[in-house]
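Hi support team,

I've been running sequence recovery on a batch of backbones for a student project. Most finish fine, but this one hangs at about 90% for roughly twenty minutes before it completes. I'm not sure whether the input is malformed or the queue is just slow. I've pasted the structure tokens below so you can try to reproduce it. Let me know if you need the job ID as well.

Thanks,
M.K.
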């Protein structure tokens, strides 16, 4: 009997370091990588391009089915194409994250993205990053991690990232946005942000990225056979 393709899920609130840790872990394991937040962000961007009303869930669900998202590595950089256009920069904006979080609260949108996310599970393995990877999308994952960090630390990291990109934002405003987005993600009725019962919690406050990656990889069993 063939063994299932191994999956490492990395869930947690925004700014806990999931993206960087997941990409590095995938590269060290030689596994595929799923950035599930990018799918919700892509639907948000497509909805805003089409000028859809956020109060019209039926239109947003149709948009979810119709939105084509492609991940391509160009000159060593991951670029994300939405309906054929390179939307990488727009996808990263804090406003896109907030839009994604509003859309992600609609149960039919989540259902529409379920199989698309599961299709990323291919040999030799998958690192999946998001909010509900270990609870809903890959409940049978081999290893589940939940990354946290204090809200101030997460806002500080986001602030530094944006500063490096030449985007100037006010720290207090960023902290407020992060707290509001976390509250919405944690309080929604469908697939709320919470650790799976069998997830290992890692508080990344004060840890370097390398230290976190090492701790995460130490949890992944070597594959037999
Ligand atoms: O992880 P990222 O910040 O890109 O996610 C953007 C938003 O998409 C989150 O705030 C959350 O509302 C939603 N999301 C989700 N489930 C996931 C990944 C992201 O609801 N698995």
């Amino acid at each position: 009997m063939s063994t299932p393709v191994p999956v490492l899920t990395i869930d947690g609130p925004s700014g806990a370091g999931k993206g960087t840790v997941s990409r590095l872990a995938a590269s060290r394991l030689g596994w595929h990588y799923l950035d599930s937040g990018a799918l919700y962000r892509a639907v948000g961007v497509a909805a805003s391009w089409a000028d859809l009303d956020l109060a019209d869930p039926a239109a947003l669900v149709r948009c979810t089915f119709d939105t084509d998202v492609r991940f391509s590595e160009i000159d060593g950089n991951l670029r994300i194409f939405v309906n054929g256009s390179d939307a990488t920069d727009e996808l990263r904006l804090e406003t896109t994250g907030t839009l994604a979080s509003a859309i992600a609260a609609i149960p039919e949108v989540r259902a529409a993205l379920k199989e698309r996310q599961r299709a990323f599970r291919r040999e030799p393995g998958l690192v999946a990053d998001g909010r509900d990877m270990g609870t809903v999308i890959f409940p049978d994952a081999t290893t589940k991690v939940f990354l946290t960090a204090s809200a101030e630390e997460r806002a500080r990291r986001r602030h530094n990232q944006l500063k490096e990109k030449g985007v100037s934002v006010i720290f207090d405003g960023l902290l407020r946005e992060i707290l509001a987005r976390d509250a919405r993600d944690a309080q929604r009725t469908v697939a709320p942000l919470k650790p799976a019962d069998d997830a290992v919690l890692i508080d990344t406050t004060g840890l370097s990225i390398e230290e976190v990656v090492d701790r995460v990889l130490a949890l992944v069993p070597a594959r037999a056979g």
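--
Follow-up from support: It reproduced on our side and the slowdown came from queue contention, not your input. Residues 14, 36-37, 40-41, 97, 100-101, 104, 130-132, 181, 185 surround cytidine-5'-monophosphate (CB under 6 Å). No action needed from you.
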